[in-house]
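Propose amino acids for all 273 sites.
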């Protein structure tokens, strides 16, 4: 990660994220919805070919301001999708709009629309209501986060963002395990600052609180590092391995057991004990 940032002339330290945002070309929040739509439209044909779906959807983008850990959130019903941009945490650049067009619109949204289309055509065997606390969340979040690795592997700027996010979630996983195994808040905070020096005290505090005090977030947030790590490894496998998994992922919700069975030579999901 440091080597990637060095190539961009960005030093590792307290200003890393600020310098990266500056290098990527910030855009105003008011311009973000149209920029995300345009970025999604440009890459949508490639995603559809890759995952073999013609499912239609309609997208609404809203700005909101809430005290929550997320900066972007997609939900909806059927083919009607809603993307919320949390202006309290979100920053917008020419690079992140491409990243989140893939993540939110085509990673989450197109996948959900594909499930809707299949559910309308046949009696599917799964419950037609997805939840962040379902056994499918490793797939849903992990693939959305890493979709650029499969779709736009030559977009180095977006890949830098994805890999930085992967690194950050591995650190969050360390904190997740530490705070729940008795490590003190002070020790966890010191570890976080050493690993990610640009994190603020508030960001560290939120990460530790979400992963220790709230039982719903404690279970759900583990899916982020576990899913992103597994799919990052999958992207390095031969396309004959990962293409069938991606196509299956857009036909039905897959559990961790399903994923492991489709790639038995892959790493243990969630890491080894």
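Proposal:
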């Amino acid at each position: 990660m440091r080597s990637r940032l060095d190539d961009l002339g960005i030093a590792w330290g307290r200003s890393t994220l600020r310098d990266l945002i500056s290098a990527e070309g910030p855009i105003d929040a008011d311009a973000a919805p149209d920029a995300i739509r345009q970025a999604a439209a440009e890459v949508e044909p490639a995603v559809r070919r890759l995952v073999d779906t013609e499912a239609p959807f309609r997208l609404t983008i809203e700005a909101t301001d809430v005290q929550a850990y997320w900066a972007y959130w997609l939900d909806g019903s059927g083919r009607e999708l809603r993307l919320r941009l949390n202006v309290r945490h979100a920053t917008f650049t020419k690079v992140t709009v491409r990243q989140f067009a893939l993540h939110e619109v085509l990673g989450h949204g197109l996948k959900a629309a594909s499930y809707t289309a299949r559910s309308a055509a046949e009696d599917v065997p799964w419950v037609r209501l997805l939840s962040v606390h379902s056994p499918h969340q490793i797939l849903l979040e992990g693939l959305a986060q890493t979709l650029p690795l499969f779709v736009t592997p030559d977009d180095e700027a977006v890949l830098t963002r994805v890999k930085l996010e992967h690194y950050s979630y591995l650190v969050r996983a360390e904190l997740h395990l530490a705070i729940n195994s008795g490590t003190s808040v002070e020790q966890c905070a010191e570890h976080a600052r050493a690993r990610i020096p640009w994190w603020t005290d508030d960001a560290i505090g939120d990460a530790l609180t979400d992963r220790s005090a709230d039982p719903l977030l404690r279970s759900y947030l583990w899916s982020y590092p576990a899913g992103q790590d597994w799919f990052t490894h999958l992207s390095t496998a031969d396309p004959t391995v990962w293409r069938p998994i991606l196509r299956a992922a857009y036909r039905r919700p897959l559990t961790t057991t399903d994923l492991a069975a489709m790639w038995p030579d892959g790493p243990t999901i969630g890491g080894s004990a």
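Residues 2-262 form one domain. Residues 168 and 196 are 7 Å apart (CA to CA).
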